[in-house]
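Re: beginner question about structure tokens

> Can someone show what the tokenized structure looks like for a real chain? I only ever see the sequence side.

Sure, here's an example I had lying around. Input first:
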Amino acid sequence: MKTAIHVFLILVLGVGLGLAIRAVRGPGRGSSNGPADGETVYTNDQPLDVDAAVNDTPSKPPEDEEWLSRFVLTERSGKSVSSEDLAGHPYVISFFFSTCPASCVSQNQKLKALQDEFEGQGVRFVAISVDPETDTPEVLREYATRFGADKDQWLFMTGDLDYIRRVGAEIFRLPVDKKFHTDRFALVDADGAIEGFYNWPEPRQFEKLKERITEMLNETSSSDSR
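And the corresponding structure tokens:
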């Protein structure tokens, strides 16, 4: 009987000590009371640094942001083009590389079809290389001529590979790496928000993409006429 009482007292003291230590340290990961020190909180699929939010840290240049919200890349013309430059009209984002022998060719043929259908209208097409060491502006200029890419409507972009990885993952939620990309287009609205993702090899999704572009152009036109 005495032994059982001793065991019970030891357990009670152990639990009490643990709670005391926890109270001093504060809540850990997984606690419903809030994030631990240094923990990243995810809001709307993007991380929010708690300290930065509290301190109201000023915006930094794109390459220095902890989580990219905008981008600047080099177009085949040699000029820098930013996400701010694209604002005001919808655009379609794709990733490719010029030495890709098959899927990229088919993908860019799809973009050529979109360019022909929406020629002279507000939508733009932004193709970002995932092999920037090879795809210099000069190479991209030559590559773009193979598809009859309009220099104002269909942009071909290059830059630093690590930065392009971040642009793909953090801004457009698409996994990219050197000579690697998915068969998906991201449609971005006039305000810079992603409207949706479309698997271009799927005929129904490609048709849906065209429908949404038409709707967004009509919405933009209606807004401009007010």
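Each token stands for a local structural state, so reading them left to right follows the chain. Residues 1-61 have pLDDT under 50 and may be disordered.
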